[in-house]
Structures
1.
Amino acid sequence: MSNTLFESLAIHAGQDKPGNTTTTKLAKLSVAALLAGASALWAEDIPVVNIGGTKISLYGFLQANAVYEDGANGNVNWSEKVPSKAEDGEGRFAFNVNQTRIGFNLSGPSGEAAEVSGKFESDFANDNERRSNGVNNLRIRQSYGQVKFKNLGLTILFGQTADLIGPLGAPTINQGGLKHQGSIGTRRPQLRLTQAIGPVEIAVAATDDRANQPVLPGFQGSLKGKVPAAWAGEKQNIELTLSGHYASEESAADTKEAKDAKKEKDWGTPSSWSGVASLSLPVISIINLSGELFYGQNLNRYSNGSIGLSGTATGGKADEGIQSLGGWGAASIKLPAGFSIAGGLGVEAIDENREKKSTAETKNPNQNLVIFTNLKYNVAETAFIGFEYAHLQTDYAKFSTGEKVDSGKLNRFELAFNYAFK
């Protein structure tokens, strides 16, 4: 920066008292300090601010998605389940920037025995409703702090972050991931303990149940192991995770009468529970296979599992909920010149003995399927353009009379641009 510009900045900084040479000198020193600090920041690969010994780094991305679906979709930005006879409707186009994300990583100050870190992350995807294009929909994705005791291998986490169940993400471009379609991992507030024992991690967490006035928190646990996949590359690992959760979903009573009613015979509410197996398998350096399989009950608060259904199965006892089997599998391949391709399938099916029959007012799904494939091109190290095609189909439970309900089918074409900063 030239001396002339430097002096100009300093003089303007001291204009509150024209002609005051002392103020001008102080202003020059202030600007010099500011520029020196800025130069230090620009020299970093990652923008870092140090406040009281805590290092804060900024990350995130700008993202735009253009989506065309060839039938009725309930006026949403992207379909997760398909309305009955959706193919009879007209196609529709949506353009949104709701996935734009910003976050901060925090670290330190740390002691000799413990490391302190944290994360805050937000985006604008709190609502899939068509008219919610980044308006009044700022949401907190993650907000937590954690303490790692280095000599013990123990980490304690407080705040909101990813569930222990269903930890993998399918390689889809679609903004909904595979909600309603075989993936049940999401995020929620929790108190988590993680113990590392060599290549194995054991974790347990007490979590927000998200039920109405829950008496107890939910509980999650996972066992994760890593095995080096040397044939696929120096840093490649096979990762296998077994996880599960339980939440009673019992609502707290507001009155003495309500408390007494809970003691009556046959009173109850269905609990929520799951068992999940997750696998990431590098085949060679450019090919990776991944997937998850789960079985559970009343999973609607877990990334809209149970295809969004909750409550008691038709004809069941008060505590007999909606049970389902689901999962997803996918392959991703890195190609030359910055290209990559991926494809996969996600599905969830309700147990016919634990489903909700359709009614005149509500058509209840009993199977949801998506098949997807996409192509991505990295135009730069931090930016990509992607295109994805997906076929979706939702089947519905019969009416109690035995009459069938028509399925819904959609084809989705999606174009995405992502520009990351980190």
Note: DSSP finds three helices and 18 strands in the chain.
2.
Amino acid sequence: MIKFINSKSTYIKIFIPLSLLLSILIIYMIFSIYNKSIHTTKLSNNLNESIYEIVYFDEVLTMSSRMAVLTGERKWIERYDTYVPKLEISIKNSANFVPEITPYLQNVDEANQKLISLELESFALLEDAKQSEAKDLLFSQNYLSNKKIYNDGIK
């Protein structure tokens, strides 16, 4: 005949180790979730900072190139030249934070390269004393459509 366990000491011998094991498992799960949330928060912050830099550097380049063709002052081209590498580095670094956004960044980078090409072409026109043509280039439909592709990729 099977004897049922009904003594308090037997329940305690089973309950205490089982409770400790479950407690350890719950603590481990909480700690793991906490670490993952810290990691995700850091990635999110880094990505947000990088996107902020991309938007800022792009605005600096756009404003500098347009000021150069509108005023004819060389200082705007020099400022432009300072920020081009910074923007390119920010675009490339953003993919390191979240690899899933790489296709979007490729579109952004391609549009950026086209914009840089148009801006450099406008500077060449400016050097040839063709300020009106340089201005028209930076306000052309081609320039604006690449700007839209660029901005849509950042969003």
Note: The mean pLDDT is 87.
3.
Amino acid sequence: MRFSASCTAVMAGSVFVALLAFPLVGVAPAMAKKGAEPLAPPAATMKAEKRRKSEPTGEEEPSRADLLDGLFARLYMAGDAPEAKAIARSIRELWAESGSPTADLLVRQAGKALKGDDAETALRILNLVVRRWPDYVEAWNRRAGTRYMAGDAAGALKDLDQVLKLEPRHFEALFTKGAILEEMKRPKEAMAAYEEALSIWPGMKPAKEALHRLRLELDQET
């Protein structure tokens, strides 16, 4: 089975891609005059700033769940506006956080193996990850894609169902599920998956296009 061009592009770009590292970048202050040395803040000022940062502010940091709730609300309202892609990217970054450096490292290794056309090694690594960290949503999502690439469409759908059990708003898992069902000649189920993805992100272009195409095909058959 083979995905259509639009389905393949999205799955290759979002479902199977390895996790990226985002290094912190420091920015030096601009100099007031060319060649001037930067002035160091007085020691008392530095101590006061350090003390201020260490003191409780009374404000709790938002939880991961709160951050996701806010992002999903913004994603729904954004529709197909340009900022929707940036919001979706922020959601993906949160999904990628397992809370375990070991799990993150293993998923990156699986991604490298997959890029090297070594699906067997990738699958072996991801099997380990989902056993050790069963609540790590993105590990199940990556394994679904790997299983599909290895020719196990039924296994991929099973993993996608697990993704959606843990995170029902996983629009990429819903789109991938629809694409697989479409390739399995199950158009009505595929349409339901695409519609569910669009109920979360109304501006998700690949899902909109796939749903429109299927509706046209079904209309032509009746």
Note: The CA atoms of residues 161 and 173 lie 8 Å apart.
